[in-house]
Amino acid sequence: MTRRAGADLRHIDTWLFDLDNTLYPLESGLAARMEPRITDYVVKVTGLERGEAYALQKRYLAAHGLTLAGLMLEHGVDPDDFHAQFHDVSLDCLARDETLRAALARLPGRRLIFTNADAVHAARVVERLGLGGLFEDVFHIGSTAFAPKPSPRAFERIVAAHAIRPATTAFFEDAERNLAPAAELGMTTVLVGAHADDSTAPFVQYRTPRLEPFLAAARIDRRR
Questions:
Q1: Residues contacting residue 198 through CB under 8 Å, at least 6 positions apart
Q2: In the chain, at which end, N or C, are there fewer CB atoms within 10 A of the end residue's CB?
Q3: pTM of model > 0.70
Q4: Same domain for 131 and 20?
Q5: CA distance 72 to 63
Q6: pLDDT digits (tens, 9 = 90+) for 24-56
Q7: Domain range spanning residue 39?
Q8: How far apart are CA 99 and CA 101, in angstroms?
């Protein structure tokens, strides 16, 4: 099912949301501000020339789901030191989103954030978007013991921590591959982003360029 209008989500009582490039669009430019800092850090840790460091950064991302995971495994990086470089990144490219807040607020049951970012970054973004108080928990990279999505261990840990029933859970993500383990568990999967309609992955059930109109149009069970 590919169309975003009127998705039948009446069976859903737990709503999982990725954070970056899902609750706000990639086009905001925040990712473009953060990526050079990752490269700077790889240069500092490895001593590589910048182009080589960038290539290594992308290899770790592809192999481990997160550049940090590769840096921890191969270079013994302290995750707190890594994350500290992002805590002063300006969020002025993001704005309070009242329409998204209303679309999220109408959803019955629990809302959770499931992110590969750290707790500080997640809290800053949620506050900037004006979405405070809507989520039961932020399950961040520290919550998973630094097992990033799409690792099955990350999903096992959030399912156990929140007694999640996959059959009544929807997961919203901008990274297609992160939806595969969710689908294997039996979750309803929604790919979000400008690229979403181009996806042909069989484990993606719904696709939408933007989160808010999809949520606003979805059929839900208000009795939950």
A1: none
A2: N
A3: yes
A4: yes
A5: 13
A6: 999 999 999 999 999 999 999 999 999 999 999
A7: 30-84
A8: 5
